[in-house]
Design brief:
This protein has 2 helices and 13 strands, in the order ββββββαβαββββββ. It has 173 residues and is mainly beta. It is found in: Cytoplasm.
């Protein structure tokens, strides 16, 4: 499955800041300022935007995009998702994985029981969690499972080629 042409959401345009087209930026990157390492930004209006300048503003960050020159222009792009081409993301090591790669993977216990398919990945603050949609005929009557995505103690392997995650997990839980 080629993901080279996929788009990845890395943030969201916030409220206008001032009258000269500046906007607040809600960054989803690990380090908030890391969002500016990617260019161009593809906004949900279907257009590409280049960053003219940016700066920290208190605990937030604000940016001026090229061709966004007024508060009205800034209002027009408010609340739009910021995406990039997936090919712009850095290559990961063999033991690393992007969350988006986990979606749709089969989840199997170390004993070979099919738990289901990953539907979502999210962070609880303590650790990442995968939401697994169980098979329709699940022997334990589960519709879904929330499984901590913690290597070694729960997640044993992630096979990107076969698209299978092997976990040490009680199917009845």
């Amino acid at each position: 499955m080629s993901q080279a042409s996929d788009k990845v959401v890395i943030g969201k345009i916030g409220a206008p800041y001032g009258v000269k087209g500046w906007v607040k930026i809600n960054s989803y990157t690990e380090v908030p300022e890391g969002i500016f390492d990617y260019s161009p930004w593809l906004l949900a209006d279907g257009k590409e935007y280049q960053i003219d300048q940016w700066r920290p503003h208190g605990k937030a960050i604000v940016a001026k995009l090229i061709d966004i020159d007024s508060r009205d222009d800034a209002e027009r792009i408010k609340n739009l998702d910021i995406s990039i081409d997936a090919e712009q993301l850095p290559e990961l090591g063999d033991d690393e994985v992007y969350w988006r790669e986990l979606n749709g993977m089969q989840v199997v216990t170390t004993q070979g029981y099919q738990l289901g398919v990953v539907k979502e990945v999210f962070n609880t603050g303590a650790n990442d969690v995968i939401r697994v949609k169980a098979k329709a005929n699940d022997a334990f009557g589960q519709k879904e499972r929330l499984i901590p995505f913690v290597f070694d103690s729960v997640v044993q392997t992630v096979d990107k080629t076969e698209r299978v995650i092997t976990v040490e997990w009680d199917p009845g839980f």
